[in-house]
Amino acid sequence: MQRTREKSWEGWGHGLLGVVIFSGSLPATRAAVSGFAPLFLTASRAVIAAGLGAALLALLRQRRPARDDLGPLAVVALGVVVGFPLLTALALRHITSARSIVFIGLLPLATAGFGLLRADDRPKPAFWLFSGAGSLLVAGFALAQGSGGDLIGDGLMLGAILLCGLGYAEGARLSRRLGGWQVISWALLLAAPAMAVLALATLPETWHGIGLPAWAGLGYVSVFSMLVGFVFWYRGLALGGIAGVGQLQLLQPFLGLALAGLLLHEPVEGGMIAVAAGVVLCVVAAKRFA
User: Among the residues of 144-251, which ranges form H helices?
Assistant: First the structure.
């Protein structure tokens, strides 16, 4: 019992570090698309992270995954290497990063749902009540006539959340066998050939005029969002439970909104803060029943 409790706390600690790192992803993506096209950004961040992941795998002499692991690794790649980065980059051409961050409130519900389907992670019924309440708060905000809203941008963000939740749940299931950083590294390598071709096909016509914020954004999403964050996140989900630790993602709106306001000088409306506060209260309640 004591060992199980220690593993749970370790899982929550790793998960929290992952959330802190991921909180900078959308503001960094917003900065990056000011200088790079969404397709090039998606492909180049994956190629850069794949190179770093390959180096880690080689240096630490990790065994290749089994043939049965290739399908699940492809699902991880589809969700978190290709799907989420591409759809969010496209969405951020229509909406502000502050608005997109509020959609992260839907991610814990999506992760828990796919955890139930893919990893047989079964929280108590009350968990779904509170997790669903937090998601409804987010959905209600997205449908409201607030500034920065756009039907295309909001739709792209919803698609990104679904793919990301699938990738998180599948990656957490694999992490119990392969290890957290190994899962994301192998998924990046699996996607690398296609991403390299896409990066070459979408190279900017000129590198002149691409500002420092865009380069900084590309660097952050390539190293931290695409690799380092998953080292902590997948281990946290594997140790502490997909549904429970996944609820920590509801802290991202607070952290992300603060970054969007401080770094990008985007307006952070009172309604956004109210929604973020509401979903955090929901996760506190949901944690008790995960």
Answer: 151-178, 180-201, 212-220, 229-240, 242-246
Distance of alpha carbon 243 from alpha carbon 128, whole angstroms: 10
pLDDT tens profile 234-288: 888 888 888 778 878 777 777 776 776 777 676 767 777 787 778 778 777 776 6
HSE-up (13 A, CA, CB side) for residue 109: 20
Q: Which residues of 79-88 are buried (b: 16+ CB within 10 A; e: fewer)?
A: bbbbbbbbbb
Are 288 and 118 spatial neighbours (Cβ–Cβ below 8 Å)?
no
Token pair 């954004």 is found at 217
Question: Would you say the pTM of this structure is higher than 0.85?
Answer: no
Cβ(290)–Cβ(243) under 8 Å? yes
CB hemisphere CA count around 263 (13 angstroms): 24
